[in-house]
Design goal:
Shape: globular
Bound molecules: aspartic acid
Largest sheet: 8 strands, mixed
Helix content: 25-40%
CATH topology: Glutamine Phosphoribosylpyrophosphate, subunit 1, domain 1
Number of helices: 9
Length: 335
């Protein structure tokens, strides 16, 4: 009896799966969890497995929504929240520390159908900064809100606030102490706020059954940052961009260079005005332009056909994608 029941469930699942494939040919989801000096030798197997599991969970969470006909906005939100809630990544819980010992987070979202966008910067009490960015996009006439004003707005929209202690993690605090020590040994040089290049920003780009692309990014910024420094992640066109005509992009790396290179928009512009495909466009911007400027990091993205793109000039980038018929594909090191 139990065997028959199991077979029945299996057949029903297959019918559901096959019927879903019919309308989900092009749905796709791509993520990153930061780029930097990530070598196989300095990432213990147990930690590598934790990263792989968490990225798989993030991809499966977002893809489940896309497979049920959900929007790319919902998929990006759900995917990023899985990573924001994990101390493994430099976003939400796990955000790096500023020079003053606080956690100040940035996040952005962009909708490729309407070119509408929302961002928050320098927030200290928002559990999931991506939620606040989405509220800015959907329910305010603005694109970017900062600091306590962003938090007041988020609160008025019912976004969850937490005590700053929520963001404390021992690992990130030790990284701050190390960065400060290195800085004092270099006699206070502040032009490289994080020489270790262990980023960990998170980002996601999704394509839904309606052909809409949404890109989102969330970060704690860079360890030991000061003076209210804001990176590229919440800056539309630098760390985050989406346009249904071209692509969706989320970046990670040394933000100052990504701002100066307008990385995400430049990739889209090369596709729109020069007709480059997404991989070639990203390679021009990352491997050539950004590299020549001295910037380090990478991008993920996808285009309107669901073609997936990764490009980075660091030693590694936590990254992965999932498409119809596929299991999550996770990569960390240079292939
Ligand atoms: N791009 C981020 C910033 O500069 C850092 C990162 O990607 O880890 O704020």
């Amino acid at each position: 009896m139990e065997v028959v029941f199991r077979k029945l469930i299996f057949i029903l699942l297959m019918i559901f799966y096959c019927s879903s494939i019919g309308f989900s040919q092009h749905i796709a989801l791509v993520i990153h969890g930061g780029a930097g000096n990530i070598y196989k030798e300095n990432l213990p197997d147990s930690l590598e497995n934790l990263y792989r599991q968490k990225m798989e969970e993030a991809l499966n969470t977002g893809f489940a929504l896309l497979s049920q006909g959900g929007t790319s906005l919902d998929a990006v939100r759900a995917t990023i929240k899985v990573m924001e809630d994990s101390p493994l990544f430099n976003a939400g819980k796990g955000a790096v520390f500023t020079n003053e010992g606080t956690n100040e987070m940035d996040a952005a979202i962009m909708d490729g159908a309407s070119l509408n966008a929302g961002a928050v910067s320098g927030v200290r009490h928002i559990k999931n900064p991506i939620d606040a960015a989405i509220e800015v996009m959907l329910h305010s006439p603005h694109v970017m809100l900062s600091g306590s004003g962003a938090e007041d707005f988020a609160k008025s929209r019912g976004v969850e606030l937490v005590d700053p202690e929520y963001f404390y993690t021992e690992k990130r605090y030790q990284q701050l102490l190390k960065a400060k020590q290195a800085e004092s040994q270099e006699q206070g040089s502040t032009d490289q706020p994080n020489k270790e290049y262990k980023f960990g920003t998170v980002g996601a780009v999704a394509l839904d059954i309606h052909g809409n692309i949404v890109a989102g990014t969330s970060t704690g910024g860079m360890t030991n940052k000061r003076y209210g420094r804001i990176g590229d992640s919440p800056i539309i066109g630098a760390g985050t961009y989406a346009n249904n005509k071209t692509c969706g992009i989320s970046a990670t790396g040394h933000g100052e260079y990504f701002i100066r290179s307008v990385v995400a928009y430049d990739i889209s512009a090369l596709m729109e005005y020069k007709g480059l495909n997404i991989q070639s466009a990203a390679d021009v911007v990352i491997q050539d332009k950004l590299t020549k400027l001295g910037g380090e990091g990478g991008v993920i993205g996808l285009d309107a056909e669901g073609n997936i793109m990764f490009s980075f000039n660091s030693n590694g980038m936590f990254r992965g994608f999932i498409k119809a018929l596929n299991q999550p594909n996770i990569f960390i090191f240079k292939e």
